[in-house]
């Protein structure tokens, strides 16, 4: 499901919600559309509005603490822009820099995007042991980065059919 980024009234990214939820928030005047998918509109109730990509809450919401971006394989691929950390070619897998068998964990700092070939070649070794230096060091994305990266991947072609405007 396509997600919409939610900004606080102060423009600080808060979270993502489903498109349906975003539309409801706008219809209830709890949020305004800050950025819309170009040329796309959604019919909701008896209204028509721009398809929200980013909405901003009308009232400021106090956030007690900032959540860290939860680790995920998909998140690692997005963070590394689907480029292999060892050769720079297209990555489809996630490599544990310190292999799991040696105590390496599922963390942002221990995982990198990796092409299937290099993942196989590196196998159960550290980069040093395998003679495969990292082209760049893994890093922990901020929650806002993680959300923006996931939004950047959104593909207009992936829009659900029911959201598309019928041809005039
Ligand atoms: Zn590679």
Percent strand equals: 25-35%
H-E order: EEHEEHEEHHH
Arithmetic mean of pLDDT: 81
Distance between the termini: 26 Å
Report strand order across the widest sheet.
Answer: 2-1-4-3
Radius of gyration: 20 Å
By secondary-structure content and strand pairing, the structural class works out as alpha+beta
What is the number of beta strands? Answer: 6
Main sheet properties: 4 strands, mixed
Shape type: elongated
Q: How much helicity do the residues have?
A: 10-25%
Indicate the low-confidence ranges by residue numbers. 152-168
Q: What is the count of helical runs? A: 5
Query: Which hetero ligands occur in this complex?
Result: zinc ion
Looking at how many chains there are and whether they match, the oligomeric state comes to single chain
Overview features:
single chain, 168 residues, alpha+beta, 2 domains, two-stranded antiparallel sheet, 6 strands, binds zinc ion, endonuclease activity, NA-targeting_endonuclease
Description:
This protein is of the alpha+beta class and 168 residues long. The chain has 2 domains: 3-66 and 144-162, no CATH class; 73-140, no CATH class. It is built from 5 helices and 6 strands. It has helices at residues 19-27, 73-79, 116-122, 127-130, 143-152; strands spanning 3-7, 13-18, 31-44, 47-57, 93-96, 111-114. The strands form 2 sheets. Strands 2-1-4-3 form a 4-stranded mixed sheet. A hairpin with a 5-residue loop joins β1 (3-7) and β2 (13-18). It is elongated, with a radius of gyration of 20 Å. 23% of the residues are buried. The site of zinc ion has 8 residues, from α3.
